[in-house]
From TrEMBL:
GO molecular function, one term: guanylate cyclase activator activity
Any one cellular-component term (Gene Ontology): extracellular region
Organism field: Chloropsis hardwickii
PANTHER family hit by this protein: GUANYLATE CYCLASE ACTIVATOR 2B, GUANYLIN FAMILY MEMBER
Lineage: Eukaryota, Metazoa, Chordata, Craniata, Vertebrata
InterPro entries on file: Guanylin, Guanylin_sf
Signal sequence bounds: none
Disulfide bonds: C39-C52, C73-C81, C76-C84
Organism superkingdom: Eukaryota
Keyword tRNA processing in record: no
SUPFAM superfamilies xrefs: Proguanylin
Role, per record: Endogenous activator of intestinal guanylate cyclase. It stimulates this enzyme through the same receptor binding region as the heat-stable enterotoxins. May be a potent physiological regulator of intestinal fluid and electrolyte transport. May be an autocrine/paracrine regulator of intestinal salt and water transport.
Protein name: Guanylate cyclase activator 2B
Length: 85
């Protein structure tokens, strides 16, 4: 969840894969992650399309991918979880 947007965990994991795949490019040619938006990616899950219409889409995508970071278990990534840290 980010603000009024709610997304399935599996979709957010796919988003993270897309965004991580963007980092495989030559680092000198890369756009900073905070300004990268996967809206032009053809494999972007459809539920993220409304986010693409917003100016702050890159930051929303960044926060969502942080929520499913490698160091968090699925339970902790769930908005209903409390006290994981």
């Amino acid at each position: 969840q980010d603000g009024d947007f709610k997304f399935p965990l599996e979709s957010v994991k796919k988003l993270k894969e897309l965004m991580d795949g963007n980092r495989q490019v030559n680092p000198r040619m890369m756009v900073p992650t905070a300004s990268y938006s996967p809206c032009q990616e053809k494999y972007l899950p459809e539920e993220f399309r409304p986010v693409c219409r917003r100016e702050d889409a890159p930051m929303i995508f960044k926060r969502l991918t942080l929520a499913v970071g490698d160091d968090l278990c699925e339970i902790c990534a769930n908005a209903a979880c409390a006290g994981c840290f």
